[in-house]
Each structure stands twice: as C-alpha cells, then as structure tokens.
Amino acid sequence: MRGVCVCVCVCVCVCSALLTEHPALSQSAMSAYRRRQDHYKGMLPEEQAAILEYQAAQVDEKKAAAAAERQADMTLAREMDDVRKEANRRAANMESFRREQRMAVLQTVQAQTVQKTEKDASLKATYSQKIQPSFFDQFGSSHR
C-alpha cells in the first residue's frame, strides 16, 4: 500500500500543472514569444536546449580564444628568441670587429713608435747641439 502511495505522489508531482511547467498555460495570447508572468514556472525544453547550446558555443569560443592566445604567445616567444639570437650574433660580430680594429691600431702605433725612434736618432745626430772642434777653429783666423 505504501509503494502505491509513493507512486501516485510521484506521478502527481511530475504531471501536475501547478508544480511543473505546462507550456500551454504559460504562453501569452498576445504573442507566441511572450510568457504570462502569473503562470510562468520555468523555461520550455526548447529554451533550455537553446541556452545549453549557447553555453556550449561559449565554451568552444573560449577554448579557441585560449588556443589562439597560446599560439600568439608561442609566436611572440619564438620571435623574441630569434631577436635575442640575432642580437647575440651581432654583439659577437661587433666584438670581433673591435678586436681587429684594436690590433690594427696597435700595429699602427708600433710602426709609428719605430719611425719616431729612428727620426729622433737622426735628428739627435743632426742637431746634437754639441760644440764641435771646427767651432773653435774659426777664432783667430780673421784676416782683419
């Protein structure tokens, strides 16, 4: 007896127009898309399905946006890595160039030092500012 009572109670709850949505009762006579507020107890199954489809579409869009953002981040990281590698390559080339220039300047300075030493020796020999014996020979030899 108790099982029958429970079955009847469940049937009443499921089929009752007072407890569940009855589409014919909530639809307005003014328009098929309007609902009567005083009889509204929930959405129609089509409306619920439309909402679930829209939510599924939103989830897909969000996943697509996240994938696109990850792809953009990966592209940016790859580009930044390429830029970093190029900057390192250029820095290495610049250091090599500077090393070659320093060596060229060093060779030039060494050559100039040798030339200066030779020139100073030549000038010292030529303009030694020493009194030569010929200087003294000119005294007393005047014909006046």
Q: What is the mean predicted local confidence, pLDDT?
A: 82
Total number of distinct structural domains: 2
Radius of gyration: 53 Å
Given helix and strand content, the structural type is: mainly alpha
Query: Helical element count?
Result: 4
Query: Uncertain regions: pLDDT < 50 for 5+ in a row?
Result: none
Helix content: over 70%
What summary fits the major beta sheet? Answer: none
Shape: rod-shaped
The tally of strands reads: 0
Q: List the secondary-structure elements in sequence, H or E.
A: HHHH
What is the percentage of strand-forming residues? under 5%
The CA-CA distance between the termini, in Å, is: 173 Å
Structure, explained:
The protein is an all-alpha fold and 144 residues long. The chain has two domains: 1-42, no CATH class; 44-123. 73% of the residues lie in helices and 0% in strands. The protein has four helices and no strands. It is rod-shaped. It starts with a helix and ends in a 7-residue tail after the last helix. The relative contact order is 0.03.
